[in-house]
Amino acid sequence: MSDICLAGGRVIDPARGLDLQADVLLQDGRVARVEAGLAASVSPRTRVIDVKDLWVVPGFIDLHTHLREPGHEYKEDIATGTAAAAAGGFTAICAMPNTNPPNDNRAVTDLIVRRAREVGSVRVYPIGAITLGLAGQTLSEMGELKDAGCVAFTDDGHPVMNAEVMRRALEYARGFGMPVIQHCEDLSLSCGGSMHEGLVSTRTGIRAQPAVAESSMVARDLDLCALTGARYHVAHISAAESVRLVRDAKRRGLPVTCEVTPHHFSLTDAACADYDTSAKCNPPLRADSDVQALLEALADGTIDAIATDHAPHSPVEKAVEFEQAAFGIIGLETALALSLELVRSGLLTPTTLVTRLTSGPAAVLGLPGGTLAPGGVADVAVVDPDFAWRCDGPQLLSRSKNSPFLGRSLRGRPVLTLVGGKIVFAEEKFLV
Amino acid sequence: MSGVFPHRHLLGTEGLSRADINTVLDLGERFLEIADRPIKKVPTLRGKTVINLFLEPSTRTRTSFEIAAKRLSADAVNISGAASSTTKGETLMDTATNIDAMSPDVVVIRHAQAGAAVMLAKRIRAAVVNAGDGAHEHPTQALLDCSTIRAHKAKGRVDFAGLTVAICGDILNSRVARSNIHALLTLGARVRVAGPRTLLPARITELGVEAFDRIEPALEGVDVVMMLRIQKERQAGGRFPNTREYSRYFGLNAHRLALAHADAIVMHPGPINRGVELDPAIADGPRSVILDQVARGVAIRMAVLYLLGGGDSGAE
Prior knowledge:
Largest interface: A-B, 20 and 26 residues
Helix content of chain B: 25-40%
Mean pLDDT of chain A: 97
Structural class of chain A: alpha/beta
Strand content of chain B: 5-15%
Structural class of chain B: alpha/beta
CATH class of the largest domain in chain A: Alpha Beta
Strand content of chain A: 15-25%
Shape of chain B: globular
Low-confidence stretches of chain A: none
Mean pLDDT of chain B: 93
Largest sheet of chain A: 8 strands, mixed
Oligomer: heterodimer
CATH class of the largest domain in chain B: Alpha Beta
Distance between the termini of chain B: 16 Å
């Protein structure tokens, strides 16, 4: 592998408080040096790539990806999912366990790790199930799952309804130093609702779930977090009240973190007004006041990470009546452009944005990367923040196209993604 | 024969202008007398094909549409299916595109899921009439209700200014309530909705109606009382204790009707749960206009089929 010098870009590395014009030298799969003027003196075997006017940032880390393998390869597989991740600037993604069979035992984790090594473009960190079969009853073999490579536990898509089970999961996971991630939804309150309960659901007649279905479980879990002292992470937070609860819990010093998806901070329930199933997700797109709360929380650090909840579905699940359609939106390839809107609107500084995509998520799960510190892995994204493009289905590398942003003009794209110093995605002009 | 109706489909009353509604009501009134002729048929839609795609059980609405189509000399074909098309292994979209390939002029759809008619209209060439989609809309019911109200309370008028209408019962799950709210507000009526709070949808007042969680204050001084059918399965969903209690506190009886204007009319979209939401003596009494609603239903549906089925060159 040849060494690479990314020359003349704007280097933003929030973990080290850097935002400067510099060259980044990648050697032997690691970051060697970050300094101005390196390009002039590199060895002849080093490939110098001119990245003037572009951002050079740590590769993004996605805490929440559905790769669908094993079991639902017609929606996505590890090859297509990680290719989409690379195209989105992600160098590491966390694979959710709701596969078929679910990742509730070592054999499945082993398979995911092996397939990722064979066909994956980016690093894949499996997340194991909290309970067997995601059924919310019997704890999975958390110790063995950790040894096999799992980095956290969740029954994502299936909230752990039983408070006793959740308590024991937190206690048991704590012993292995592992965080527990909850999809917060009190099923007895959400009652199978397909969208957010509000004026749009009233107009459309779509059965709806109230925001309190999420926030009441966040409240319960925060009490359990306080009781057990275990690390607790709220997946895809969506309601203003949930955000308030997490902010308070952080002030009290609880070991709690949370993530938000780009679609939850970019869209409201109005996107469902025309029964567009590509806007159907769970938790549902919320009211404008919820979105405002999410944006504030992203800015003030209550929300630690932007995560995609990339949830591919085929037309078999989506080209049906709204209430019959599957929940989920793909997000790996649109996350950056949607997040950059927050910089353009002045809500986030570039440094804060990069934090939420890199060192923020790395810290949530204690993952390597998320910084360009010399000696660290050479996982890098080169971003053109002004790259104008149209989000067209055929161009997306994900096997599924279920996105409410299809057809939209977006701004900002990765032009080069490197994992361990190796180029895994490049815009045409950077191809050798 | 009538005004311009600038819509290709009838998916709901939301979005219809006052002029649009009056176009349908005026035409409906003209068609009304056809029911009294010895030969109840006009050649208006001869050679046109109307498909009644009823994917949810329905007798009266389907019959009403079928009679309407036949009185206009259209070829009417009825398709009845399971509530969930996926149980047959065929999606609604497959059904729709297959039907569309047979080149019908109008597809009338009844479906258990909100938005089904909207979805159909995006995919097929034929005009789509929503005959009820989940808890979303049932526009022809609202139009026939408006026709009934106009005949009894606003004869010869193009608006309902000064009239107050109370819609009582299961507002949450009612497509009839939604379609009536939009249509009545567009015509300038004041609209109240009433029922146990468990059956009132979120932020309903933002549509422009007043909401009440008891029916007595909602009935005070109203010109029109519209009772909705209470569905027994809502009881299983924990929305109210049982039909006995519902009837006692939310049913319309003579005592409660006395709160309304002395000339108030009583309406119901049917079928009635006699003795639950409506005292039989009122349903069959002099204030009830329920059977007039049914008669006008055919005429209004004739008007809609006529306007959308190519009977008017003004159609887009």
